[in-house]
Amino acid sequence: MLYLAIVSLLWAFSFGLIGSTLAGVDSYFVATLRLGCATLLFLPFLRPKGIGKTDSLRLVLYGAIQFGLMYICYIKAFSYIPSHLVALFTVLTPVYVVLIYDARKRRFTPRYLFAALLSVLGATIIKAKGTPSGDIFIGFGLMQLAGLAFAYGQVAYRDWKRQHKNINDRDGFALLYIGGTLCALVFSLVFTDWATLEVSASQWQALLYLGCIASGLGFFLWNKGAALSNPGTLAAFNNAVVPLAVLSSLFVFGEIDNSNTETLVRLAIGAALIAAAVMIGQRKAPEAVRSVKL
């Protein structure tokens, strides 16, 4: 749980950086560079001999889905909708986490789903705004694909790690980043207009932070925390970043008028609901009522 909380703090600044500092930079290039930096950060720790070829390929595939496909859809969505809608459309990710987990286990866990839905409600209250702008349907579709990819990847890695407790997380995590980088690179080679690509000094700084800290360190700690948490807590923490992101927008990026009482009330109510969801996800229920086998 501590790892998930730390990463939520790290990720709180990502929406503002991408929506403001990186506005106009090719999304495929951004995704590739972020994941490339993360790969270089963890490459020295890679120990493939202790993992084996089959599991190595499996981790590469998980990374291509969780990081590569997710980032392609996520960053591309900023081209169609404003950043507050990008954040809003992530609120279904906890539901995807719970449903994918239960589908893989062929069972239904009502408590985990309730924690996820409560987290969704809290995040929705926080991010509720006026009339949507931009190409909302394309943006919504991209964010749901991103949410599904991220949810599947973290659940799949969680299950894999629990079956391989003798393998240290850092020994194979570069394989996930390699998979993500290769996936993003394929899209970038096909769709990026390299002749017109321009990146300023401040944008390079933002990309290095996002690649090494938010992506590199962040995803490692997030997946490490996911392996130690139950699905309900993991689902709820997928939305815990929302109130932190709003605080970042209020006091760092100045995207929202912090004198708006309605915004602050929504923040307080939503944060309370998300905190409740995390506690519900953490609470252990009797085994007899914890889940229903399908």
Indicate the overall shape: globular
Q: The biggest beta sheet, please?
A: 2 strands, antiparallel
Structural class: mainly alpha
| Low-pLDDT ranges | 285-294
Q: What is the number of strand segments?
A: 2
Describe the structure.
The chain is built from 14 helices and 2 strands. It is an all-alpha fold and 294 residues long. The protein has one domain (2-293). The longest helix is centred in the middle third of the chain and has 28 residues, at 136-163. The model is unreliable at 285-294 (pLDDT under 50).
Secondary structure layout:
Elements (H helix, E strand, L loop, with lengths): L1 H10 L2 H8 L5 H16 L10 H25 L5 H6 L4 H13 L1 E2 L1 H18 L8 H28 L5 H23 L9 H28 L2 H7 L3 H13 L7 H22 L4 H4 L1 E2 L1
Antiparallel strand pairs: 1-2
Helix pairs in contact: 1-10, 1-12, 2-10, 2-12, 3-4, 3-9, 3-10, 4-8, 4-9, 6-7, 6-8, 6-11, 7-11, 7-13, 8-10, 11-13, 12-13
List keywords for this structure.
294 residues; mainly alpha
In short:
The chain is mainly α and 294 residues long.
